[in-house]
Amino acid sequence: MALALFLSACATAPDTTPLPEPVPTETRLPPLTSRDHGRILAAFGGEYSAPGIDRLADEVLDRLAAASDKPDLRYRLTVLNSSTVNAFALPSGHLYITRGMLALINDMSEFAAVLGHEMAHVSARHANQREDQVRTSELVAVMRARLLNDVAGAEARREAARVSLANFSRSQELEADTIGVALIAKAGFDPYGASRFLQTMDRNAELRGQAQANNGSPDFLSSHPSTPERIRQAVLAARQHIAPEGRPRDRERYLRAIDGITFGEDPRQGVVRGRSFLHPRLGFTVTAPEGFTLENSRQAVTGLGPNDMAIRLDVVRVASSQSLPDYLKSGWIDGLSPETVEAVTINGFQAATAVARGSDWSFRIFVVRFGSEVYRIIYAARDLNAEVDGSFRASMETFRRLTSAEAAVKPLRIRTPRAGEGDTVLTFARKMQVPDRADERFRVLNGLADGEQPRGGELVKIIAE
Question: Where is each Peptidase M48 domain found (predicted)?
């Protein structure tokens, strides 16, 4: 993904403790180019309008900058319309955060900790170091393409370079943690916000992993690995500045700012509802077999099922003059058995199907022409027996046009009701519009430990329309 070339990731009385010394920086940050900014917006669903967060970010960034060793530098935050959990910065000092990450933050100090961590990557010049590495890798790939006329191979190598350099080194992450904790403490925020948020990230990753393995979409944990070591260091760093519970967290002010933001997929980009995927703008839906859990990204809809099964849905352009059986045979998938190719009709739409086999997996492939696009649905199984293949065929038969009522699907949002005396996790779990484990999701969303209950009179976060 081209944008990875530019990513650097991931009041009380002032604290007079000196900040750790970062690598020296220039007195002014390099400018943000429209090309850099545009690539990021294109990859993360565009900019998301969150006026409440914009106001808080301006205040927090001003406080953090004033407390830094370079108070004349100015940082800016853009909220991205993505459900992935991510935050990162450019060498220009332009910070980005997804609405998916905003949903997991629970107070002003945690918000400041995320921004402070990204500012630390900029001040320590981690962003510049990684950008130089990626540019060098891309130069090698381009030269190889020119010498060998291997354009496709060079592009693949450029993408691999971006992925391999997407992670900061362990030492860079630890350095950014230490600088960030000291920075938010000096700015008057609770320095324990950093360790609290890292713990929330770990719990969210565990919950997500139980439902489905990472499908390769950009994720905070892929570029900011939250490890027990990092959590321990964040706690130790905070203790250098103040005792636990020494400063207010300002939870209510933050939660008011995120009330109503979209949670999960934007319906304009398609939504997962149980085992079904619906795309209101494109006007179709399909349902996965029993036991599957789906996840939507900008590249594809993917899912895992029981007994080593998987699914992938994406879209391609196929010339209207090319038949779908011929497209299946055109070589885009290895191991295709030509004798299995057959033309079919699915709910009135032209389609074709075939079987492909690899050393460990077998695949039932469907392609269906819908409007000007062709949708590919690839079902995978370790053992593609007759029963499994039948379930894949039955799933494909659910591909159809949405009704007008279905196309009017509403997005899920973060809502912030106030807990009453006697309200429990179960009280709010019943109001959570999530597919499963509502009580666990509520705890993670609100940073509640096992056995901990919401406090009467405090705002809490739930997921609902």
Answer: 58-233
Do residues 210 and 196 touch, judged by C-beta distance below 8 A? no
Name which of 19, 338, 392, 327 is nearest 183 in CA terms.
Answer: 19
**Per-residue DSSP letters for 27-76?**
SSPPPPPHHHHHHHHHHTTSB---HHHHHHHHHHHHHHHHHSS-TT---E
Q: How far is CA 133 from CA 23, 89, 140, 162, in A?
A: 18, 16, 11, 9
CATH no., domain 271-407:
3.40.1000.10
**What pLDDT digit, counting tens, does each position of 252-304 carry?**
999 999 999 999 988 888 999 889 999 999 999 999 999 998 888 878 999 99
List the strands of the sheet with 271-273, edge to edge. 271-273, 276-279, 284-287, 400-401
The answer to whether 465 and 434 are in contact (CB under 8 A) is: no
Instruction: Report the relative pairing of strands 262-263 and 276-279 from DSSP bridges.
Output: unpaired
Sequence ranges of the domains in the chain = 34-260, 271-407, 413-464
Sheet architecture: strand order including 262-263:
262-263, 412-415, 462-464
Distance of CA 403 to the CA centre of its chain: 30
Q: Which three-class secondary structure state does DSSP give residue 109?
A: helix
Residue 25 has pLDDT above 80, yes or no: no
- The structure tokens listed for 58 are 């301006």
According to DSSP, the residues that pair with 377 across neighbouring strands are: 313, 366
pLDDT in tens, 81-130: 999 899 988 888 899 999 999 999 999 999 999 999 999 988 866 454 44
Q: Could you tell me whether strands 400-401 and 342-346 are parallel, antiparallel, or unpaired per DSSP bridges?
A: unpaired
Chain segment 331-346, per-residue pLDDT in tens: 999 999 999 999 999 9
118 among known catalytic residues: yes
